[in-house]
Amino acid sequence: MEDDPDHEALALRALLKTNIDADIEVARSGPEALDRLFRPPQPPREPVPRVMLLDLKLPQMSGFDVLRRLRSDERTRMVPVVVLTSSDEDADIAQSYGYGANSFIQKPVDYDRFVETIREAGRYWLSLNRVPGGR
After folding, report:
1. Which of 21, 45, 48 is nearest to 34 (CA)?
2. Which of 5-9, 96-100, 124-128 has the highest mean pLDDT?
3. pLDDT tens digit string along 7-46?
4. How many CA atoms lie within 13 A of 107 on its CB side?
5. pTM of the predicted protein model
6. Which CATH number fits the domain that encloses residue 102?
């Protein structure tokens, strides 16, 4: 989930360049993401994502609130969540892991580093990481 259109475009471009077979959906607010995750699945959409990149600063609902909701529901409890945010506050890091995040990545300010960070995260979470159900 990303509310900054520039970061969204850069992240999508970087993920697409990894050539990983994955459908990418973008939600621009917490309520939009939760609606997509919890509405009845529409084929050929998978019921839950293989990984979720979550910004903490979202309109209408914080990333922390989204994370708490994901972890409180059996359908999304096991979805890997990577917090990808501009924050470098120790409290945000601790709270993210406390609510069940699997990773915390600070968004680099530098364009090239941002693209490389997204590529590396995408490769790891979509190629190397394994989740229940074998996806």
Report:
1. 48
2. 96-100
3. 778 777 777 777 777 778 888 899 998 998 887 765 545 5
4. 19
5. 0.85
6. 3.40.50.2300
Q: If you write DSSP's letter for every residue of 33-97 in order, what string do you get?
A: HHHHHHSPP-TTS-SS-S-EEE-S--SSS-HHHHHHHHHHSTTTTTS-EEEEES---HHHHHHHH
Average pLDDT on 46-71 reads 90
- Listed in sequence order, the residues at least 6 apart from 99 whose beta carbon sits closer than 8 Å to its beta carbon are 64, 67, 68, 71
User: Residue written as tokens 């069940």?
Assistant: 100
Instruction: Count structural domains, the chain.
Output: 1
62/121 Cα distance (integer angstroms):
22
Range of the domain at 56: 5-128
Which pLDDT score is estimated for 122?
Answer: 86
Is 44 a member of any domain? yes
d(CA 58, CA 60): 7
In a domain, 134, yes or no: no
